[in-house]
């Protein structure tokens, strides 16, 4: 028997002002788009904004439903839009932010498990890592250089070979 260990690393910035200009701009886009979220059930408004390698910007927001499991997270809404509008084009960076009726927006949120799986598929399909910028409306910003770092031992098409 041998014990294995997987470590992930991510950067922690004190706030948006420490980010490179382009990343700060994209995070502000994600914050802005939270206003367009459809979240009447959770009142938790998530916005995502991505820059593609062709320079295009694609956004996404969470899309809830009276039948709760039908709801979509902002990240998957964005990825499905990007794939429909610009099939096969890699995403360089995705920023995610949120607002909530119930409280503060001063710490980063990270994608849910289903979105991590979806992000991994996107990266593998186009052959390029997606850099994630995660933050609320204030406070610390996390930067993960590759979305699939958040899915250690993930299931992929390779697993079926
Ligand atoms: N949500 C997202 O859109 N992205 C995340 O990273 C976490 C959760 C949404 C799903 C649901 O509409 C609401 O936030 C509360 O879970």
Low-confidence stretches: none
Q: What Rg is obtained from the alpha carbons, in whole angstroms? A: 16 Å
Tell me which CATH architecture applies here. Answer: 3-Layer(aba) Sandwich
Q: CA-to-CA gap between the ends? A: 25 Å
Strand order of the largest sheet: 1-6-5-4-2-3
Number of domains: 1
Query: Residue share in helices?
Result: 10-25%
Overall CATH class: Alpha Beta
Biggest sheet details? 6 strands, mixed
Count of alpha and pi helical runs: 3
CATH topology: Cytidine Deaminase, domain 2
Ligands:
tetrahydrodeoxyuridine
Provide a descriptive summary of the structure in words.
It is a single chain. The protein is an alpha+beta fold and 161 residues long. The chain has a single domain, classed as Cytidine Deaminase, domain 2 (3-Layer(aba) Sandwich), CATH 3.40.140. It contains three helices and six strands, in the order βαββαβαββ. Strands 1-6-5-4-2-3 form a six-stranded mixed beta sheet. Strand 4, helix 3 and strand 5 form a beta-alpha-beta unit. It is globular and about 50 Å long. The model has no long low-confidence stretch (mean pLDDT 97). It binds tetrahydrodeoxyuridine (THU). The site of tetrahydrodeoxyuridine has 15 residues, from strand 2 and helix 2.
What is the compact description of this entry?
This protein has three helices and six strands, in the order βαββαβαββ.
